[in-house]
Model the fold of this input.
Amino acid sequence: MKSSMPTGNDSPRVDVHSLEIDTISVELSGNWKLEMEVPSADAVRSKIEAMPQCRAIVFDTRNLTGWDSSLVAFMKNVYEFCATRNIERVPDGLPQGVVRLLALATAVPEKKDAKREKIRGPFLKIIGEESIKLGRSTLEMIEFVGEASVAFTRLIIGKARFRRVDFINILQDSGVGALPIVSLISVLVGLILAFVGAVQLRMFGAQIYVADLVGLGMAREMGAMMTAVIMAGRTGAAFAAQLGTMQVNEEIDALRTLGISPMEFLVMPRMIALALMMPLLCLYADLMGIFGGAVVGIGMLGLTPAEYYTETVLSISLGDFGAGIIKAVIFGVLVALSGCLRGIQCGRSASAVGDATTSAVVTSIVFIIVSDSLLTVIYDIMGF
Amino acid sequence: MAYGSFVIQRDLTFSIRRGDIFVIMGGSGCGKSTLLRHLVGLQEPARGKVFYDGVSFWETDLAERRNIMRRFGILYQSGALWSSMTLAENVALPLGEYTDLRPGQISELVSLKLALVGLAGFEDFYPSEISGGMRKRAGLARAMAMDPDVLFFDEPSAGLDPISARRLDDLILELRESQGATIVIVTHELASIFAIGNNSVFLDAESRTMIAEGDPHKLLEETRDPRVRSFLTRGEA
Done:
């Protein structure tokens, strides 16, 4: 259909001329449709500004062939400008529909204080406001940790209320449900570690030490850290999204007004489930990583399975696994904590749930890396 | 009432008598739902007090506040059913938390409450499997679970077809008659307001305060305020 395409002589036009000494006539012609290039109200404005004695404005639409919202928007603009200058608007020449729509659009006065103020203050002010925001969010976090500790104490003395079914579901989801992805990532990380080591060690003919490198690396460090990062992206994000959606649906309000603490009912089971499952997943990841290393060691470096196994057993002690597992428990608590924190803090819209999820993952990963460095230093000082 | 420094409503003073069907009305965005949040204990007022039987709700300690809140039943705008639980579990949760009933008794009560709102047979459905109107009714069943003294409704008939809305009104009247419950409703459905309301407060968004109170029927006859009149007559007067 070509009929709706703009044609040269039917394009919307506005001509402004003075009718009398104090009256302006605005002539609107052509097809005023949104898909056409519609003129702006500036021509009318500048004409009015050029005629300070102007008191009235009339319209001529005899050559107007069609119109839609574009004309109404144009007219609203003109009307508003005229209103600021006390110019009388004579709507007689306008199509009736436009007049009625204009009347509707101006029926409810604009709420001046409803628009968000976007004042960008001086640089120092922005820094100050941001610092206050940071302080407040830190305070919220501390408050959340405090409430979680209270809820945990109540759990220990057997007073906390949550549904066992929920707990088991979360346990399953954050445990068994994560096995496939943890397997894949840990095998590959083991593989990568082995490759990195192999390149260097082969130069000295010391390929056998790839087993030490992979074993120690996985057990003390990478197993726990990679599992934690996976769980942050998988389960931490899920926690934030679940709680965030519950916040949007007023489900958390419904719990509160029933006198049930969301901390006990929602946060505790998630936190405990993750703190229980993380060490198990970490142990599993350690073994899968070692397996990945073995694939490289045996397949590429010419080691026999027995050699690789013996070297691994010799190089890693139970304490090394312990070091990793302690980290895993701490990471688990941190991931659950940030997921739930962001979920509970979530605003009341769909986009807020997205923000909460993103923020949960970022917070968890920051927590994981920072606490990992701290723990590594502490281990070093303790000689662990 | 305020969010941060943004004041929504100020100088609100009204009392709700036992057995009232009290309507909080006003145009969209005037703070009706926020007022409700203050009344049910979800949000502390920026200034002022809320009394229940002479006890200042926000000044008393948490345990006492929880005790008062236990006498409430609340129907949220969207139903706010817990999405991970079936309808029966939703209704049963408050009963399981606060009573010593045996599971058999609880499930009998749950069936009764669901039947009262016309949802018999839907016990094992999840909230996502039923329609919006049904969710709302299930939310009502949950609100009624504990035979509350005070029932709060946040726009109960929004999103319901006229017949369901009418049935809901009848149910509200019946709850008041049979259980002597006090009912507080946030709504702007004129039909409901006149059908069941016997006391009300009118919030105005422009002046940010209440501009009328009392029986809606009397308000319609007596008010001289053009804003209230225009609201109660759908803008015809």
In short: Chain B touches chain A through 23 residues (CB under 8 Å). The mean pLDDT of chain B is 86. The first helix of chain B runs from residue 32 to 40.
